[in-house]
Amino acid sequence: MTAAVKPSRRFSIAPMLDWTDRFYRRFARELSRDAWLYTEMVNTGAILHGDKMRHLRFDNVENPLALQLGGSDPADLAKCAKIAEDWGYDEVNLNVGCPSERVQSGSFGACLMLEPRLVSDCLKAMRDACTIDVTVKHRIGIDALEDYEFLRDFVGHVHTAAGVTTFIVHARNAILKGLSPKENRDIPPLKYDYVHRLKRDFPQLEIIINGGIAVHDDIAAQLEHVDGVMVGREAYHNPWMLADVDARYYGSDWRPESREAAMRALRPFVEAELKAGTPLRFFTRHVLGLYQGERGARGWRRTLSDAKLLKDASWPLIEAAMAQMQSPEPSPA
Questions:
Q1: Which among 22, 40, 80, 153 is least surrounded, fewest beta carbons within 10 Å?
Q2: How confident is the model at residue 106, as a pLDDT?
Q3: Which residues have C-beta within 8 Å of that of residue 22, sequence separation ≥ 6?
Q4: Of the candidates 237, 305, 238, 319, the residue with the CA atom closest to the CA atom of residue 271
């Protein structure tokens, strides 16, 4: 973290189930020192009654880091917020945006937008239980509730009743029936103007926009209207984009020297995990996109995703993949 710049959510990587685990986050931190990172969504029950180490463990270099919670019981969320603080997280975030039917069956996620009083009770309980930032991530609407006024009233109520000041807004409606989570990321139209208007109506709040934003020019354009941008799948599939984040959004002169340098900086972490019994594939699956768009990228992906090569593999397999990038396979005619 650069000493001259206060940690901020000016650029963040979205919480993504099965993707933003501690192995991906440790990798991302070698590409950007300042981007705000989020865990996968973790259900409160998994923390209170499950394996805390599995769900909460992280490396200190991952900070600034937020724990995203799924749940709708104020008491349980309060307990988890306090646990997050005790474990060293910088923020605890409530998921009010996930549209999956599995999440709905647990009465949390996007369906909570229909219950702003309950959302407020949850967030207030969380704020009362800890001193770290408590934030909320949500959609702009639910099903046929598409008017801007629905979004404005939801944010206004939650801010007034719970005192929350940071809202991360996915600029699409959530369709609770008939669309898969993947379709909910693509089919409902993006309405960036709703989020821009929200910032104008609530200038005192920190408004962060999410949804369909991938390239740096578009991120910079969004920052003319809101306080921060949250990027999802592009940061995962094309992680080298993170190499420009610190300079562009945080005024830092730090940048990884090269893709190879970033990978080699991870060697102590990877070898410690291997020694502890973690299979190499837990890490390599997150780095397959590092050379996206580069000649030889197909060979990099093939080497590091080959089940036979990965069986009982260790760091030399990564070195072999990097050596292949230095002498990449010929491009097809």
A1: 153
A2: 57
A3: 57, 58, 59, 62
A4: 319
Please check whether residue 207 is in contact with residue 9, taking contact to mean a CB–CB distance below 8 angstroms: no
Helix, strand, coil percentages (3-state) for the chain, rounded to 5, are 45, 15, 35
Contact 146, 173 (CB under 8 A): yes
Residue that has been written with the tokens 């990097």 in this structure? 322
- Whether 98 sits among the annotated catalytic residues: the reply is yes
Query: What mean pLDDT is predicted for residues 193-211?
Result: 98
Amino acid at 254: W
Closest to 59 (Cα-Cα) out of 272, 281, 250, 264: 272
3-state secondary structure of 177: coil
CA–CA separation, 155 and 262 (whole Å): 40
CA–CA separation, 299 vs 310, rounded Å?
14
Indicate the pairing of strand 166-174 with strand 228-231: unpaired
Instruction: Name the region of 312 (left: φ>0; alpha: ψ -120 to 50; beta: rest).
Output: left
- Stated pTM of the model: 0.93
- Which residue in 80, 98, 111, 130 is the catalytic one? 98
Distance, in Å, from the CA atom of 34 to the CA atom of 166, rounded to the nearest integer, reads 18
For residue 180, the SS3 value is coil
pLDDT band at 330 (very low <50, low <70, confident <90, very high): low
Beta bridge partner(s), residue 169 = 138, 209
Kindly tell me the burial class for residue 63, based on how many C-beta atoms sit within 10 Å of its own C-beta (0-12, 13-18, 19 or more). middle
Backbone phi, psi, residue 147, to 5°: -75, 145
Residue 225: CB atoms within 10 A of its CB come to 16
